[in-house]
Write a structure and sequence with these properties.
mainly alpha, three-stranded parallel sheet, about 160 residues
Length: about 160
């Protein structure tokens, strides 16, 4: 039922465009023109899409599972707190777990968009700027490459 409702909403709303797939370069271009990225996911191992959104100044609404709270936070985006196990996986074993999880996401998306973003649209720019600053500080590709190169060199020299 929900899938049918979503498809109908997409078909009848010119502000929503659905893509089955896009090359990464086109995704990045879309993010550059977007206000907010949504990743209310059940599972995401690395969080690359969050990093891509943040790098384009697009704050992200994500769940707080696995690696996502290491990358996203309420200072640079929004985190939806969902039930999770000791290692950070979402609790989704039963139909009831998935229903609860989805209900929390739905309620939190509504609250964040309606009560935080629409009531204070300037928050998008503020969090977008902070997201870019965070990317520069913690996820700069040159710094990461240099760090890894030094780590590998130390590893190689200590194993000789």
């Amino acid at each position: 039922k929900n899938l049918q409702e979503a498809k109908k909403l997409i078909e009848t709303n010119s502000n929503i465009i659905h893509y089955k797939s896009l090359p990464n370069t086109e995704v990045l271009e879309l993010l550059k023109t977007s206000h907010i990225a949504l990743l209310p996911t059940y599972d995401d191992t690395y969080g690359y899409s969050v990093l891509e959104g943040q790098a384009t100044g697009c704050p992200v609404i994500s769940t707080n599972i696995l690696a996502l709270p290491e990358i996203n936070n309420n200072n640079v985006g929004w985190l939806i707190k969902v039930p999770k196990d000791k290692i950070g996986n979402g609790l989704l074993k039963s139909k009831e777990d998935r229903k609860t999880f989805s209900s929390i996401i739905e309620k939190e998306l509504y609250r964040i968009i309606k009560k935080e973003i629409l009531s204070n649209p300037e928050i998008i720019k503020i969090k977008g700027k902070k997201a870019i600053e965070r990317i520069r500080k913690y996820h700069n590709p040159k710094d990461k490459a240099s760090f890894l190169e030094n780590l590998y060199k130390q590893s190689i020299s200590s194993n000789r």
